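Quick one, probably user error.
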């Protein structure tokens, strides 16, 4: 190969290596975000269930639907 072809090939290989590193970094970030999203969804589900449980407990009290005396 000529010198120009060798230099172009080396430049392309360097660019490809950089892009490969960038792609791996992005993949790692997406994986971390996916893990965090799963954790947040589980936390939201637990909070929702707890809120529903508290609402059920309050709903059983006959005084819960009455207006306060100052109304």
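Nope, works fine. Designed sequence:
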């Amino acid at each position: 190969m000529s010198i120009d072809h060798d230099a172009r090939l080396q430049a392309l290989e360097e660019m490809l290596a950089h892009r490969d590193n960038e792609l791996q970094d992005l993949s790692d970030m997406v994986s971390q975000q996916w893990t965090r999203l799963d954790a947040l969804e589980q936390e939201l589900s637990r909070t929702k269930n707890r809120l529903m449980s508290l609402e059920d407990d309050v709903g059983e009290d006959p005084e819960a639907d009455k207006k306060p005396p100052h109304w």
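The chain has a mean pLDDT of 90.
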